[in-house]
Amino acid sequence: MKWIEEELHEIEKTSLKRRLRETVPIVDKPGFIARGGRTLLNLSSNDYLGLAQHPGIVEAMRDSLLIEGAGAGASRLVTGNRKPYALLEEAIAEWQRSGKALVFANGYMANIGVISAIVNRYDAVFSDQLNHASIVDGIILSRAEHARYRHNDMEHLRYLLNKHRNKRRKLIVTDSVFSMDGDQAPLHELAKLKQEYNAILMVDEAHSGGIYGLYGEGLSHVLGLKHMVDIHVGTFSKAFGMYGAYVCASDTLVNLLVNKARSFIYSTALPPAVVTGIRKALDYVVRESWRRERLFELSSSFRSSLCEAGFKVGDGDSPIIPLILGENDTALRFSHALEEEGIAAVAIRPPTVPKGTARIRFSLSAALTPIEVRDAVLKISKVGHQLGVLK
Ligand code: PMP
């Protein structure tokens, strides 16, 4: 078993070793976490709307626990299909103005389940190079041809669609907002190519569901492209502050998923109280648009202040703001120095991002205040100068 030590050593040598950090006690201050006895401003959370500690959601979950008990006891196709599921799926389908919604245990399982249910070795999947790992894993699991196109490069996608034009089914899949870069997919162009090549279009709105749109329906809705997207995936683990995921599609496609998506069929249903909590979170997502407004104001001022300070940050208007530093070691040192300054901002390294693009992925939350964000920019600039990233 010496190979285990050797492999770990190899990982360590390239500053890629990961470790579980100390557990994070909850602090009574939204937007902050506790670490090493200190309270840190949390710029690494996906709790975009600040709902993860919402008392209304907690109360709904507690009430549901008392009625439904702790666990579902079985998968949904056996005896785990409890009432909160039907209520949530109806509410999600109505919110999304979709034929039907199906809830999965999480976004990872939704993506691997959907892709492996609808394509196989006779088919091809056209996937953006920066798509989330769960999409990549779903494609591998499906055994379809994996045609990866360069990030947002529609010419390359067209080339690959031509190359594989004789495949039985063609699935184009993309994140709507990219998880590590915060930029958007060119959904209009993707919709045109889907039509031209008679392909299926699947969009993962993990980082845009709850955030874009008058009611948080997502980016494809805002762009007027909802009807062009055949499979719409979103997760409850980010803007909703909860856990779980949804897939919206036609009645017939959802019916197929119930029959073929193995991560849905062979896994226990979520605890009913979690499902109830998600439905309560949906109420806040839909009704409290001030959370979205505040999030965009904070993101825009944070992004422009970092640019003014001389940093290069990614494109887009999303709450995901990457500070690309290149070397793994620089990203780690940057993150440690920020922690000294009272900011939790995690270094993201390969394989999560391409080699040579290690970064600090800042993500903002409506739980923060403008003063906290302004203060964070000053501290980030100080670290930038200390480490020679800013000249
Ligand atoms: N898709 C994307 C684009 C994501 O960023 C993530 C989570 N990082 C997932 C899917 C997986 O979602 P979950 O955390 O609910 O498993």
TrEMBL record:
Pathway: Cofactor biosynthesis; biotin biosynthesis. Signal peptide: none annotated. Its cofactor is pyridoxal 5'-phosphate. It catalyses: 6-carboxyhexanoyl-[ACP] + L-alanine + H(+) = (8S)-8-amino-7-oxononanoate + holo-[ACP] + CO2. Pfam families: Aminotran_1_2. Keywords: Biotin biosynthesis, Pyridoxal phosphate, Transferase. The keyword Nucleotide-binding does not apply. CDD domains: KBL_like. Residues 39-378 form the Aminotransferase class I/classII large domain. Its EC number is 2.3.1.47. PROSITE patterns: AA_TRANSFER_CLASS_2. The keyword NAD does not apply. It is an enzyme of class 2 (transferase). Belongs to the class-II pyridoxal-phosphate-dependent aminotransferase family. BioF subfamily. Homodimer. NCBIfam families: bioF. Catalyzes the decarboxylative condensation of pimeloyl-[acyl-carrier protein] and L-alanine to produce 8-amino-7-oxononanoate (AON), [acyl-carrier protein], and carbon dioxide. This is 8-amino-7-ketopelargonate synthase. It comes from Paenibacillus glycanilyticus.
